[in-house]
Give the backbone structure.
Amino acid sequence: MEIDVRAGLDRLAARLGGEGARVLEAQRLSGGASMETWAFAIEGENGREALILRRRTVAFDPENARAVPLSTEAALIRAAGASGALVPPVAHVCDEADGLGEAYVMGAVQGETLGRKVVSDPRFDAVRGRLARQCGEVLARIHATPVPGLGLRVADAGDELDRYEQLYRDSGAKRPVLELAFQHLRKRMPEPVEPVLLHGDFRNGNIMFDPQKGVAAVLDWELAHVGDPAEDLGWICVNSWRFGRPDRPVGGFGDYADLLAGYEAAGGRPVALERVRYWQALGSLKWGVMCLLMYLSWASGAEPSVERPMIGRRVSETEADLVVLLEQGL
């Protein structure tokens, strides 16, 4: 059944803004195969409030999804915020009365999420040198968050290698660099550590940055799970998230030393750079498999979207990254 989002927002106005509250404006910001985001404002008893609606457009399938339900996502954001992490305030988790399906509402946070602008726009020149340390600090607070009883999946390096190698084998593709990376990373898996709450997609592009303050909020928690803290630390260092600045390994704006110093200063347990770079390489391998599968879904005719082959061609970028990392002795 198709949902009238605008009508649902009108119903939300009274619940969030009191009797007589009204929606001033509503704009769909983005949308994909299963998720969409709306920006809207409510004028009510307490004045004007800018809000964001995040809603799922298809039914959640717990058997085939790595993403968490949106109610879980909202609960995790609240829990991380209580631990001191910079997150958007969750205002409301939608229920049946709202008529919006699976969704939640959060306060709008001002800033920039476009990675290329963060690494190159002169507006960020003054703060860019502090961003890597701030990212380490916010990750330490996320990782210190007590894991709520929400049924989060648990995964270590072996689990991730198993999953992505199976996806790769099932695709029927033959990519020598990916083959070598799977073998190499299996031989060098780090010893397990005490697992923590992970954001799961912590990278430049999923973080809101303010030109004066730096990190403003961590967004997009749908891949949150429990695992090795170095997974989050390594993912933001994957070259694909540096947006043309390979010389700055942390998000295209900073260095490993600043990331790890910020992490320890905020209470995170010391993590060896070697472990971070292992997860960085595993991150490049995972993204390479994802890119490959996107291309194949287009080539087979299953996904006609032009976005799929555009992302799919980036598999060669991840292969180049892996060659460099392997040559460096990982």
